[in-house]
Structure formats: structure tokens, C-alpha cells
Amino acid sequence: AAIISYDWNIGFVSAAPDGVSRQVIGINGQWPLPVIEGTAGDTVTINITNSLGNQSTGLHFHGINQKGTPFMDGPSAVSQCPVPPGSSFTYTFQLDEPGTYWYHSHSNGQYPDGLRGPLIVHDPNDPYAGQYDEEIILTTSDWYHDEVGTLIQQLLNTSNTGFNPPIPDSLLLNDTQAAKFHFTPGKTYKVRIISMAAFASTLFQFGGHQMQIIEVDGSYTQIATADQIRVAPAQRYTVLIKALATTDLNYAFLVALDINRDFTNVSASVFPHNITGYIVYDESKAYPSFPVEVDTWAPADDVTFQSQSGQSLLASPTKEITLNFTFGIDSQGVPRSYFNNITYVAQKVPSLFTAFTTGSSNTNPLVYGTVNPFVVESGDIVQIVVNNNDAAIHPFHLHGHQFQVLERPASGSGAFDGHNIAFLGAPMQRDTVTVNANSYVVLRFQANNPGVWLFHCHIEWHVIMGLAATIIEAPESLAGGTIPSDHQSVCNAQKIPLAGNAAG
Ligand code: C2O
User: Fold this and answer.
1) Would you say the pTM of this structure is higher than 0.80?
2) pLDDT tens digits, 235-270
3) Which end of the chain is more exposed for a tag (fewer CB within 10 A), N or C?
4) What CATH number corresponds to the domain at position 400?
5) Of 97, 122, 147, at which residue does a domain stop?
6) Which residues form the Plastocyanin-like domain (predicted)?
7) What backbone phi and psi angles, to 5 degrees, belong to 201?
8) 207 to each of 231, 287, 289, 336, 468, how far by Cα in Å?
9) Does residue 355 fall inside a structural domain?
């Protein structure tokens, strides 16, 4: 296995991906950002230097489970202190599982300013080897013309009593508005679709070509054929697309922001809501203008997919966590979001270091403060139920695991009634799942990865509003853990205490 090293200077550069120039967060003076790429078993080390001048930062490697390295997971105030301007920090971790991932800032709501990119882990034992000829990465992202700091001020303003997140100004494909893929007749393409969006889900339909889904969020599926998919923020779908045998046409594909379900108060004319990419067989032929609109979106349902991992339905839960999600106004008049009437407030001491340094009291949720802490024991079968009391779809993400998705009924189904769950076959595993409006989702995973892991809505604006919980996994094996020296210097530079107890 190889060691793959990157040396990244993180700082502002200007870019105009949709024609409007703005400051974005680049790496080594460039934007779009580089792809992190390796093979399962490789070790990655990324030395970052924060040259943002006035903002702290930190990176999260979304979907990488960080087995044995929970302090490399990245979220500020959870598994590290933020890296202040002028400081450096080195992330080192193993690429355990092959698949399609991404990295992004997990500090200050920062990734919509551009600090996000693909992370690809190749598979030396690819079960689909031989069934495709070439690989393509296709990122999708909503995009804003204002910087995150400005958008957060609007979001958390006491006048925002409708809890409205900022509305994106445009939609990007591969950080441009003109994605084009050249296909050769007879070949099959493996397309890794990655949503790096902050808010809006995107719908995909390839004119004249079907998708065969083979992987979601780093987990192989048995082939599921689809004409349309819906990719929520942070989700990934890897699909095989077979080129046609004839070359007498070029084809368009449509990518649309999911206006009806994400933007309950916004009319379609407010912003450019879809863009067209092209599958090009012959540059000399015309590009079709269809499908510019799609009449009906009926995307494939990931809960019906069968996993290829061979892991059948996990046994009855030994630990149940129910999260009732609502919006509300706090005592200061600020719009917030809540799990079980508690809004997440980042603590001074990173929660993982609290688990390391509070001895046997680290099994007591009270030591972690207002982070919605849930303690699970090593080996527990953990069932998480999210009851969504909002009228829109939300994507929920768990760090440290690929959970099984057991049940996700239609919008309007109300709260989960606690019934026993039966599932035929092997439930889909992924790390980010949507829950329908006024409905629920049921997830299960086995506690086999000691650490402190966030569970949160991946709409970045809702993270900022406090829609997060913290899973304290196997605290008995975290007690007495050593805080690596790189972490100590970053915390010390900001006078953030390394040890402690949020309550005391
Ligand atoms: Cu994409 Cu908390 O992460």
C-alpha cells in the first residue's frame, strides 16, 4: 500500500464558475480543487496551511470511517480545534473502503465558499471490473454569489422567522455550467456522481441513456437500473452508462434543482433551476436541446436497492435513539433547528477530547454539554429514528459508519410508531439518507468504531442552525486516549483547553 501526500495551502482566490466573479476558497492558488485519489489500503497524509487570513478552517473526509483515527475526522469542536489563520495541521488516515467520497471544510459553515472536492478510493478487487472502460467524475453543486459570512447573518437574523435558508444563485456541474462528456460507441462509462451542494438536491436524467447504479455512498449495490436519480447534498451515486452503438446524434442530459421539494416557498422563476450537459459522440453534429424540462420526476428509491456487502438486516436494536426534528426561535429570537427541543451548541473543548480526558465519567452524557450527546456501548446494535416534523425533505449524515437504511415512508406518514422491522434481502448501506416531509426514516448500525461521531442534516444552513447530534461510541475505550501533538499545538495557539468537562 502506498502513502499519498498532499501539501495544501488554503486561501482565497477569485473564480467565476457561473460567469459571476467572486472570492472562493482555493488550494495552492487554484479552484476548482484537486481530487484526493488512492487505492483501498493506502494511507493519505494532507498537510494544510491556513492562509485564509481571517477565518479558521478544518477538513472532513466525508464517508471515510476513520477506524482507529477518530481524531482525524475533522469537524471543529467535535474531533479537533479549528486550525487558525497562519497555522498548519496534518491529517493522516487510511483509505479502508473503496468507493466515491468527498472532502469539505467542517468549520464555520465554510464549504459553500468552495472548500470541497472529490475523494476517490479505487478497488483492487472491484466486483464490477471488466464491465466498464473509463471513469468519469461528475460533481454537482448549488452555488451562491455571496460569501458564507453574509449568508449566515441573513440566516440567523431575528427577522428570518420563516427559517428560510439562502436561495442558491445557480447550479454547477464539475464547477462549470457546460459539462460535456465525449462517448465512444461500444464503450461503457463509470460515472461517479457526487453532490457537493450546501442546500439543494439535484435530479439527473440522461437523454437516450439509462443508468445502472452500482454504488451509493461508498457501498456497492446489486445493479439497479434507473432513468432518474435524486442526489441530495453529500450523497454519491456511481452509475454505469453504456454508450450507444450508433453515432448519428449527440445527447443532452438534464440536471435540475429539486424545486418542488426543497424550495417550498420559492417560485421556479427565481433562479436558474436546471442546466443541460451533453454526451457528445460527434462534435460536428448538432447538440439537441432536449430534455430541457422533464415532465415528471420519479427518481429511483434507494431504500429498494440491495446491498452487495452481504450484510443482512442487523438484529433487533440494543440501543434506540429517536430524534424529533423541528425548527424554532430561541430565547434570543434567533431561528434555530432542534432535535428533541435541543439545538446543538459547539463546546470549547472538542467532544472527542472530553471523552479522552474525563475518565470513567465519559459515559455520562452530561459531561459533553449541549451537543445532543448519545452514548452507545461497543457492540450495540444502534437504531436511529429521525422524525421529520418539517414540510421539506432533509438529508441526514452519520460520521464514522455506513448505516443500513430500513424504512423511509412517503411524505405525510407522521412519526415512527415503533413497530418491528422486517426487510427482505440485504438493506442498502450508505452514509447520507433523506427523510421525507412530515415523515420518518429508520437506520441501523453496529457500534464497532470507537469515536465521537456527528449525526446531522447535511444542508449546511441547518448545521449552522444547530441540527446535529453527537454519538459517543464506546467511551470506555476512549478514556485515557492521547491527544496527538499536532492537535495540542492548534488548540494551544487559540488558548482552547484540551481537557474538560463541559458541565464543570
Ligand atoms: Cu459531509 Cu459532517 O459531513
Assistant:
1) yes
2) 999 999 999 987 778 888 888 887 666 555 555 554
3) C
4) 2.60.40.420
5) 122
6) 15-125, 135-281, 345-476
7) -80, 155
8) 17, 12, 10, 41, 38
9) yes
